[in-house]
Amino acid sequence: MYTSFIKVSLLLLGISGLAAPAASGQSAPGQLDGYIATAFASNQGLKQQQFDLDKSLAALKEAQAMYLPTVSVLGSYTKSSGGRTIDVPLGDLLNPAYTALNQLTGASFPQLQNEAFLLNPDNFYDAKVRTSLPLINAEIRYNKLIKQEMISSQQAAVNVYKRALVKDIKTAYYRYYQALQGVGVYNSALLLIKENIRVNESMLRNGLRNGTALLRSQTEQEKTTAALVQAQRNTQNARSYFNFLLNRPLTDTIYTENVVKDVLLNDPDTLAGVKGREELKQLESIRQVYTLNEKMQKSGFIPKLNTFIDLGSQGFDWNVNSKTRYYLWGVNLQWDVFTGGQRKYRAQQSRANVNAAAAQLDQTQQSLLLQLEQSYNNYQSARVAYKSAGSQLSFALKYYNDQLKAYRAGQLLYLELIDAENQLTGARLQLADAQANLQITLAELERGQATYPIHNPN
Fold first, then answer.
1. Residue 333, SS3 per DSSP
2. The domain at 2-75+136-308+340-449 falls in which architecture?
3. Domain ranges in the chain?
4. Which of 55, 63, 245, 313 has its CA 20 to 30 A from that of 181?
5. Which residues neighbour 137 within 8 Å (Cβ) at sequence distance 6 or greater?
6. CB-hemisphere CA count at 13 Å for 3?
7. N- to C-terminal Cα separation, the chain
8. What is the structure's pLDDT at 266?
9. Range ranked top by mean pLDDT from 199-203, 269-273, 338-342, 369-373
């Protein structure tokens, strides 16, 4: 019996490492960073954000292409009959003269017919290559600047999603690790209960105890077994959610051997504030877009100047020769001197949008500062709770060892030993929960300051 007591004591000492938090540790395990990189490459929600960014990049290239010449192939063919004509009285004008000449000179000038030419060309083609180029167009310039700002806004939106994804992955990871610890706690509790059952059976055979203690220990075994099944189910759910974030099969293995049990307890840097938050950058880009749009509306009073050149051929019956070939060059000027105030009112709308975006930017900054303060306060509370849970586990472990010695010596009721055992199990679960909460509050604080390193390919 004394040998069994030594084994149980060694088991308890082996698991008591959770009770003494160290002064330092890793806050971002390399394994977890690898999982985050995997999520960046395969998360479906992030892919949707990246597609929107690709769309913005294509829109910028389209705006830049407006500075380049436009080359078009144009052609037309006309077949007509009837309609208005131009009458040319050649016979009436020349035939009298030709007749007189024939009589005087004996020549044979022909008699001409009056002609009628259709205004609509018949069997006529016109094929040409037109090259046009904008020379002065302020709207093209502002359109390009707006597209550039839209890229900045969408890139900020991608980073916002990435940072939220980092926090969700870290939260799911530590919840999964907490669930694993819960399974370990209940397995250890079952070992203690099985040892108590063995001891109670031995005492019952030797007439030292009645059957009440054995029945109670068997009841505790059933209760703990049910709690273990629930903890295992929680572990499966946590694993499925974590794999979902990584867009992996829900049953894939999650490696946690690099997770340290002791977390950094020093105060994190809180001087960074919210300057790095991409939400502010996104709103600033939107405000700049509205500002540029206002300038673009006002630039409508600047004349637009384009140039063009046509190289082609036109003629009847599909003839192509030196007489049908032609070129045509020119410039086009458009100056809207009066539009009924349309651009003025559009500029006023853009100005209103600028003011609204500025107000939203200020409100968002205040909201993010509030969230950061709350995250820091939550971290401070979680740190205190973590230290307290470690101390409680140390006390619960010592209390259980003392109660176990007294029970073995026949100086304690089994109900009191069960109470000490339940306190030990509860203290271990509380420490696992406090550890996970501390890691999660650190992840939330990291999210509030936007300090996690994000590398963008663009």
1. strand
2. Up-down Bundle (1.20)
3. 2-75+136-308+340-449, 81-120
4. 245
5. 66, 304, 305, 306
6. 1
7. 69
8. 52
9. 369-373
